[in-house]
């Protein structure tokens, strides 16, 4: 089994799309939120919207860990790296995200030592290979990536690597979903649940959504067949008036989650009392910081951090797009002041950002040629 | 850095700064080579510089890229490379064996491509600059008979052809840098495409409207340039694009789009429909042309953009590359 081709098989995709058309009640308008930015991109990349009937609307959720980070935190990370002898290490996705004085890539062009790493252990390796420098790893991600940061910190402590620290911006997914459901502007029928974060946390953490809010949720994989099958499962639940947590991504997501990963996270991290999310405001118990036992590797404790709150430019509507209240092209700055080359917010450059997905795949199907020449 | 990646920023740099100041009299869109007349003889000239890390990689090295790249720029402009000049910028401390290996590689690539290297220059810069070496080659060629490359003749219904599998070079380089814990049996596709272009000219010369070699920025960038220049739409069938499984797999894992990945031994062509079958058939018969395919069609809509039809009849717009392709997080 190749695990990619089988889940993109044209015949099956076509049949599943037909099943969706059969199940969807023409008298109803369905609003399904896909929480995860990876799902947003999959939808656009495979042209899945073209396969769905008009009355199924997909709403993009806040599941993009780069997008929800307020600009002030980018500034903080860059401020630490401005110091002599510090190497700023981060995933590729972080490199074009704008801070108030520019993105990490722009800072690199101005002389800052900025390196792309593919995992936190690469950053630790970098530290061991550069004993006269300090490597600061800018850690981001939901529970998806937190375990590897945790394991890396455990290794750093075991090997007593002194010239390494982590600037921790890990956030947790459940409070974000709660904030969406608490929001008065939102009217959702069901959720396409995030696939990769669930490989760590399992399916239980979503049970309150079906119990308290009575909204179905199906944890979905990322291939076209996964997403279409998840939509079939949601429609079936709605048709029969049920609301339960279902796991479509069974080949990867265990119901109980990954015990070892959760254990590592618990050993290294604790919840911050509150954390600011772009678009969603301050949410309590929604982000991770390092426990005192790991203080020596906590960049926020080793370095002075400005900690300035930076609000988005007034005209930018990143928050509303993140919550799914606005579609990307409905933001006034979309495609004009804010493009992938001159992004105002992270949603336009992150590989999980809905504005990026929309811009790269969709919007020029409906734009005029003049808009094209202006955008370039 | 984005200005060197071959995508939007590069184009803006050329159109906005270089062209108006350096070639104010030039008319028409930017092409890979310039055509001019000297004492009544028409020739084509092109120049290109080569900056690659690592210098040697599976399937080739910077020396071969330097020869083949310039031969190919001339070939897709309808010219046969006759002579070439080369300049080296060498980093102080570069091992002699490395330099010698590259010079040998260039000599043999030049011989295979049928081009003579006639003139050159060398400079040495401080240790820490030039990544070992940078090479620039300038090529002069004679025009290939029988082709009528005139983008002004492009019409809806014209076919888009690719000479072979895409993405090999860029992914090979990425893996050769060793930063990723990823291995694949892939080699760079660097080669002279002149033999293929000559066969194409013979089989369908009068029908060839446009050609380009999709190097940095990949197929998507070249097709977007075409779309913008002619104002028409290019609709590509995703399933028709030839690609090695290893490229597909590596791009999936890293979150990269194969259409944005550099190629060093392929070309794209737009061919009038009455000639397109003959073109593909002729190429398929040639060693190295077996995977040539028609991958798309020129259409009225979407104007000035490139649309990719997915396997399921859905579609997505693909833009030029912005900056360097960056692997994703989760």
Question: What does the model show?
Answer:
The complex is a heterodimer of chains A (376) and B (330). Chain A is of the alpha/beta class. In chain A, 36% of the residues lie in helices and 16% in strands. A 5-stranded parallel β-sheet of chain A has the order 2-1-7-8-9. In chain A, helix 6 links the parallel strand 5 and strand 6. In chain A, helix 1 (10-23) packs parallel to helix 10 and helix 2 (37-45) packs parallel to helix 14. The radius of gyration of chain A is 21 Å and the shape is globular. Chain A starts with 9 loop residues before the first helix and ends with a helix. Mean pLDDT of chain A is 90; it is low at 367-376. Chain B has 330 residues and is of the alpha+beta class. Chain B has 2 domains: 33-143, 60s Ribosomal Protein L30, Chain: A; 151-318, Alpha-Beta Complex (Phosphoribosyl-aminoimidazole Synthetase, Chain A, domain 2), CATH 3.90.650.10. Chain B has 8 helices and 14 strands. In chain B, the strands form 3 sheets. Chain B has a 7-stranded mixed β-sheet, sandwiched between helices. Chain B is globular, with a radius of gyration of 19 Å.
Q: What is the total domain count of chain B?
A: 2
Number of domains of chain A: 2
The geometry of chain A reads as globular
> Oligomeric status of the shown chains?
heterodimer
Q: At the first level of CATH, what is the class of the largest domain in chain B? A: Alpha Beta
Low-confidence parts of chain B lasting 5 or more residues at pLDDT below 50?
none
Write down the CATH topology of the largest domain in chain A.
Answer: Rossmann fold
């Amino acid at each position: 089994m190749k695990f990619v081709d089988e889940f993109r098989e044209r015949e099956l995709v076509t049949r599943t799309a037909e099943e969706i058309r059969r199940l969807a009640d023409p008298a109803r308008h369905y609003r399904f939120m896909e929480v995860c930015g990876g799902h947003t991109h999959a939808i656009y990349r495979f042209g899945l919207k073209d396969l769905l009937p008009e009355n199924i609307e997909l709403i993009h959720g806040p599941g993009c860990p780069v997008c929800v980070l307020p600009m002030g935190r980018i500034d903080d990370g860059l401020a630490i790296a401005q110091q002599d002898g510090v190497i700023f290490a981060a995933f590729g996705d972080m490199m074009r995200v704008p801070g108030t004085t520019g993105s990490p890539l722009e800072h690199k062009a101005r002389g800052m030592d900025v390196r792309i790493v593919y995992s936190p252990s690469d950053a630790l390796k970098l530290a061991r290979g550069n004993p006269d420098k300090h490597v600061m790893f800018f850690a981001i991600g939901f529970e998806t990536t937190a375990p590897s940061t945790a394991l890396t910190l455990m290794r750093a402590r075991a090997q007593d690597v002194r010239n390494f620290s982590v600037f921790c911006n890990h956030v947790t997914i459940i409070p974000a979903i709660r904030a969406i459901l608490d929001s008065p502007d939102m009217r959702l029928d069901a959720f396409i649940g995030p696939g990769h974060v669930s490989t760590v946390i399992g399916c239980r953490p979503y049970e309150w959504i079906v119990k308290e809010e009575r909204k179905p949720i199906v944890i979905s994989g990322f291939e076209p067949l996964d997403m279409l099958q998840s939509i079939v499962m949601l429609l079936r639940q709605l048709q029969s008036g049920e609301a339960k947590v279902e796991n479509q991504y069974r080949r990867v997501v265990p119901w109980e989650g990954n015990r070892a990963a959760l254990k590592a996270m618990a050993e290294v991290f604790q919840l911050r009392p509150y954390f600011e999310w772009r678009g969603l405001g301050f949410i309590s118990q929604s982000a991770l910081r390092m426990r005192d036992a790991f203080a020596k590797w906590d960049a926020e404790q080793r370095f002075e951090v400005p900690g300035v709150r930076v609000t988005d430019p007034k005209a930018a509507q990143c928050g509303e797009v993140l919550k799914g209240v606005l579609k990307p092209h409905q933001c006034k700055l979309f495609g004009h002041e804010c493009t992938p080359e001159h992004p105002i917010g992270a949603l336009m450059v992150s590989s999980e950002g809905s504005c990026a997905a929309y811009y790269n795949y969709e919007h020029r199907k409906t734009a005029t040629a003049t808009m094209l020449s202006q955008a370039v | 850095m984005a200005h060197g990646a071959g995508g939007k920023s590069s184009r803006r740099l050329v159109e906005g700064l270089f062209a108006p100041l350096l070639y104010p009299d030039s008319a028409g869109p930017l092409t890979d080579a310039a055509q001019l007349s000297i004492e009544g003889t028409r020739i084509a000239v092109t120049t290109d510089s080569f900056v690659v890390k690592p210098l040697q990689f599976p399937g080739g090295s910077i020396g071969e890229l330097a020869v083949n790249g310039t031969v190919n720029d001339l070939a897709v402009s309808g010219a046969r490379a006759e002579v070439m000049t080369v300049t080296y910028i060498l980093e102080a401390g570069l091992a002699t064996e490395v330099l010698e290996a590259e010079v040998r590689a260039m000599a043999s690539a030049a011989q295979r491509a049928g081009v003579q290297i006639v003139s050159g220059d060398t400079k040495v810069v401080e240790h820490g600059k030039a990544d070992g070496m940078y090479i620039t080659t300038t090529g002069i060629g004679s025009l290939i008979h029988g082709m009528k490359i005139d983008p002004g003749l492009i019409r809806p219904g014209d076919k888009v052809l690719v000479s072979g599998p895409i993405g090999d070079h860029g992914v090979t380089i990425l893996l050769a840098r060793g930063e990723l814990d990823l291995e694949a049996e892939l080699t760079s596709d660097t080669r002279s495409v002149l033999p293929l272009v000559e066969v194409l000219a013979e089989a369908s010369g009068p029908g060839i409207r446009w050609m380009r070699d999709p190097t940095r920025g990949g197929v998507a960038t070249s097709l977007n340039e075409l779309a913008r220049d002619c104002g028409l739409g290019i609709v590509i069938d995703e399933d028709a694009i030839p690609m090695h499984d290893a490229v597909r797999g590596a791009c999936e894992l890293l979150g990269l789009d194969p259409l944005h990945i550099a190629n060093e031994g392929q070309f794209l062509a737009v061919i009038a429909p009455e000639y397109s079958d003959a073109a593909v058939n002729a190429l398929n018969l040639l060693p190295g042309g077996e995977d040539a395919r028609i991958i798309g069609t020129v259409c009225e809509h979407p104007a000035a953009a490139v649309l990719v039809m997915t396997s399921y009849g859905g579609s997505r717009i693909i833009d030029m590359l912005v900056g360097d392709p960056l692997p994703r997080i989760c």
